[in-house]
Amino acid sequence: MIALRLTLPLLMTLFALPPAAGASAPGMTTAWHDGALRADTAGLVSRSDLVQEGPAWRTYQAMPLGNGVLGAAVWAEKGYSAQLNRVDTFPDLKSAGRLVVPGLDPLMRSSDYKGRLALYDGQLVQSGGGMTARSYVRADADQFVLEVTGADPAKLQTADLKLWAGRTPAVSAAGGVAALAETFHDAASGSITGAVAALTAQAQGVTASVVDPLTVRLTFRPRADGSFRIVVGVPSYRGGELRTAARRAVVETPSHHLQWWHSFWAKADPMRITSTDGSGSGEYVENLRTFQLYTMAASMRGDVPSTHGAVVRMFSSSEDQADWAQDSYWHFNLRMLVSANLGAGIGDLNAPYFKFYLDRAELMREWTRTHWIGGEGLCVPEFMRYDGTGDGCDNTQEPSWTRRILTSGPELVNNIWEQYRYTGDKALLNRSYPLMRDVARFYLSALTPGADGYLHLEHVNALEVQWDTSDPVPDLAAMQVIFPIVADLASSHGDAALASQLRAAVGKLPPYRTVQRGGEEVLAWSGTDEEAHNTQNPEMEALWPWGVFDKSSALMQATFRQRVYPQDKDWGMDTTWAARLGQSDEVKRLLLKGIADFQIYPNGFTVHRTGQEAVRNHSFYNEWGGVVTTGLQEALVQSYDGVVHVAPAWPRDWDVSGSVQIEGGHRISTEVHDGVPNVVGIQAGSRDTLKLSNPWPGQSVRVVDSHGHVVVAPTTADVLTLTTNSGASYTMERVAAPLSSFAFAPLPGQPAGAVKTLGNRVLGIQRSEPPLESDLVTVEAPEKLNNLVKAQTGASTYVDRSYTITDLPAQLNGQALVQGANDDSKATTPPDYLTLNLTRPATVYVAFDPRGENVWWPDWLSTFTRTTETIGTTDQRLILFKRDVPAGKLALGPNSGVEDKGNSTYVTFVVPR
After folding, report:
1. What pLDDT shows up at residue 27?
2. Are 539 and 558 in contact (CB under 8 A)?
3. What's the rounded Cα separation, in Å, for the pair 644 and 634?
4. Does residue 830 have a cis peptide bond before it, meaning omega lies within 30 degrees of 0?
5. pLDDT tens across 702-723, in order?
6. Element of type H or E holding 836
7. CA distance 587 to 565
8. Of 779, 775, 773, 710, which Cα lies nearest the Cα of 738?
9. How far is CA 387 from its chain centroid?
10. Distance between CA atoms of 179 and 198, rounded to whole angstroms?
11. Which of 391, 486, 475 is closest to 435 using CA atoms?
C-alpha cells in the first residue's frame, strides 16, 4: 500500500506538558514537568565528552574545534599542535597553517595528564604537571585561542606558525605579531580566495620573527603568574598589505563564546540512552549523536556547507591531504545532515546548505540550458563545484557516475519544504519558490509520453548505480511527492497553468516495476536491468527520503530484506529504513555494525567504507554521524506519514529519555523503558491539528493541557486528533498511569569519566607510549618521520600502517626507532630520503624486507653489514643490517633501487656506541 505524505502548507507545533497533581507510584519517575522534558543540560551533554586518558600523539587522534567557518584539529605532536582550516579557501581548501607550541610537552608527558573535549563549552581542556591548557575557536570570531597556566615564568617559550613543502605564503613579523598569508587563484572560475594566519601572545617580552619562508615565530616568557595566552586570527584574505591584515586579525572583542555554546545546547533536542544489559552500547550511540550535533555547530555556520563528499576538511590534521574533490559537493553526502539537524531541533544549521544552492540558482539554470538537450527550468547537478559548474544534469555526453542523476533537484525542493514545515521560515520558502518551480518544470520537460499512456523518464541514472536507465524509483517517488507540493505553491503564486500541469502529471506516472529477488517480489531499481556501478539501493529511496511507502507495505518489507547492498558504505540510510518499517532489532543491529565498520577514529569521525585503518587515512568523514542521528530520531519519533508515532522502532534493551522535532516546529518528548513510553509530552510550535498514534495499543489514553484540563477525552482509538495552540504544552497519558502517578526526576548527567569502548571501537584517547625523547638522535627529514619511538615489543613499525614489533634483538630493546613510511615503499629518490642528526658516535641498524633481496634492495644498503639477526613484526620478518657511524649528519637513501618495485619499507634503529 502506498501512503502519500500530506503536502498542504501546515506549520506544526512544539509540544509541552504540565505537572499533574496526585500521588506517585514507587519507582515510577518522569522528567516531563511544567511543559518540558527537564534536564541538567550541561551534565547531559558532558556525558558525551571525549575523554583523553593520555595525550593525542597521532594526527588521526586530533580533537576538532570550530565556529562554523574556522576549524582546528588539536593534538600533542611536538608538545602541542593545532592545524587551522577555513571553510572557504577554494579551490583546494588548503590549510591556513599549523600552530606548534613546544613548551607544552611537559604537560603532555606528565603522569597525571588529563584531558577532555568539553562539548558543552566547545573547548579542549588539558592538565598535567601543574600546567593547564584550554583551547577553543571563538564562536563569535575567526580566532583560535590557547590559554595556558602553570608555566615557568622564567622559561623562554616559542610558538610557531608553519606551512609545508609546496606552499608559497607571504610572511610577516612586526610588533609582536607574526603572520602567514596565501591567496589561491582558481583558473576555472577566476575567483581568488585565501587566508591570513596571524599569531600574537599575551605574555612578557613578546617578539616576532621569520624563521624561514614557511615558518614564523613568537618568542616570549609567561607572565609572572605562569600564564600566557596565544591568539591566532584566521580571517579570509584576498591580498593587500599583510602587516595591516595581521594586526586586524588578532584584535579581540569581548567574547561570547560560552554564551553561544550554552544557548546552542539549550535549543538542541536532548537524548539520553541507557543500555539495560550493561553493555554500554546505548550510551556509545548517544555519544555519537551528541558529537554529531557538536560537529554541526562547529562546522556549519558559513556561506557554504563544510563537507565535501562527506569529508569535513575544517577539522583536518593532515596538512593539505584530503579524499575527493574539495572544490565540489555531492548532494548525496549532504542530505542526511539536513535531516538530522531538523529532527534535532537545530535546523538553523542547514542555512549554509540552502544558501549554497540558492546563490547558484541562476548558474544552474544556465548549466541546464547548455547541458541538457530539451531541458527547461533548472536541474541541480548531483556533483557541483563551488562556482556553480558541475558533473551532472548533462545529456550531451555519455552517461557516467553522476552525469544523469536528476534527483538532487527534487531532494533540494523537498528539503526546502521540510525546512519550512519544521521551522516556519516563510522567507526561505518565498525566496526558494522560483528554484522549486523550475526544478518541477525541468522534470515536466524531461518526461516522454509512452504508448502505454504513462509519462516516462528515459536515459537517466538511478543514483550512481544504473547509468542509462528509465523510470528509476528515486525519480518516480520524487515526482510523486514534489509535484503536489510545487502545484500548491504555484497556485498560491498565481501560476494556475503550472499547477494544473503538475497535478495532471502525477496521475500519469508509471507504476513501480517489481522483480523477483531472493524468492520474494521486490521493487526494482528502475524500469530496466542496466548493470550496477555503485553500491547504493535506489529502490529503498521510496521509503526514505520520499516516504511513499510505510511499514504496512509487504512489498517494501520484502524490498528491505532483499536489498542488494546492505549498509556497505557510511552513507547508507539502512537504520532509518529499518525504523520506518518498525524493525527495532534491526535498528540496533545496523547501528552497532556501522560503528564497527566505519568509526575507526577515536575522535568520533569515520571512514567511507569497511576494512580501513586510521593510520592509513587522511580524511575525517561525518555523514555516518548524520545517519546515526537520523536513525535514532526516526526510531524514537516519526511523523512522515502525517501521524505522530512515538517509539515506533526503539530497541527494547535501550532505555531512552529524549525529544525529537517534527513538522510544525513541535517538540515531541518521551521516556521509554523496556520498549514502553511513560508519557508523551508535546510542546507546540504552531497552531495545528495533530494526529497522534496511541503508543499503548488498546489502552485508554487522553490528552491534557498544561493546566490539567482534558483536551482529548479518554479513548482506546488507534489515532487521536489534537488541536494545538502555538506555545502551549500537552501531555498524552494513559488513564491508568497518568502523569500524576510519576514522581518528577529531571534527566541527570555527569561528565564522562573514562574513554568509551564498544568492541574494538573507541571514543576518546587511551593512554599510549609518548614519542621517545633522545639525546642521541633526531630526524631532520622527512618531517613525517620526526617522532622517534621506543623500540620494544608492540611498538609500531610504520607511521602509516598498524604493524607492530613482535620480537627484536636484546641490544635494540629500549633504543630509538625511526619508523618507516610504507607509502614510500617504492620510492627511489631522493638520495637523502632519511636524514639523521647524531650527537655522538652510534651504531645504526636498518631492517629490510627479505622479499627485496636481488630484486629491489637499494645500492646504498651495501654500505651496511648484514647480520644474522632479524626483527619480527606482524607484517614481515625483517633482515637486520648495521653500520657504525660518527657523530654528525647521516643520510640514508630511499627504500627501493628499482623503479616501481618495493614491498615493506625499511625501519631504522639507533644505538649508542
Report:
1. 64
2. no
3. 11
4. yes
5. 999 999 999 999 999 999 999 9
6. strand 834-838
7. 16
8. 710
9. 23
10. 4
11. 486
Task: Name the one residue in this structure whose C-alpha cell is 506538558.
Answer: 17
User: Of all helices (H) and strands (E), which one includes residue 262?
Assistant: helix 257-267
Partners of 720 in the beta sheet? 692
Would you say residue 453 has pLDDT above 90? yes
DSSP 8-class letter at 875: S
Instruction: Answer yes or no: is pLDDT of 16 > 70.
Output: no
Cα 472–Cα 475–Cα 480 angle in degrees, nearest 5:
125
Which amino acid is residue 505, in one-letter code? A
Query: Looking at this protein, which amino acid is placed at residue 541?
Result: E
3-class SS letters over 362-409: HHHHHHHHHHCCCCCCCCCCCEEECCCCEECCCCCCCCCCCCCCCCHH
| β-strand pairing of 743-744 with 29-30 | parallel
Task: Please answer whether residues 814 and 792 qualify as being in contact, where contact means their C-beta atoms are separated by less than 8 angstroms.
Answer: yes
664 near 11, Cβ under 8 Å? yes
Please state, in angstroms and rounded to a whole number, the distance separating the CA atoms of residues 473 and 460.
Answer: 11
**H/E element, 554:** helix 554-561
- Residue burial 6-16, b: 16+ Cβ < 10 Å; e: rest: bbeebbbbbbb
The answer to whether residue 21 scores a pLDDT higher than 60 is no
d(CA 34, CA 99): 48
The torsion angle over the Cα atoms of residues 530, 536, 542 and 544, rounded to 10 degrees, is: -170
CB atoms within 10 A of CB 769: 13
Q: What is the mean pLDDT of the chain?
A: 96
What is the SS3 assignment for 99?
strand
Angle, CA 297 vertex, CA 294 and CA 301 arms, to 5°: 160
Integer angstrom CA distances of residue 606 from 311, 338, 485: 9, 18, 36
Q: Cα–Cα distance between 209 and 215 in angstroms, integer?
A: 9
- Give one DSSP letter per residue of 466-534, joined into a string: EEEESS-HHHHHHHHHHHHHHHHHHHHTT-HHHHHHHHHHHTTSPPPPEEEETTEEEE-SSSS-PPP-S
C-alpha grid cell for residue 614? 586510521
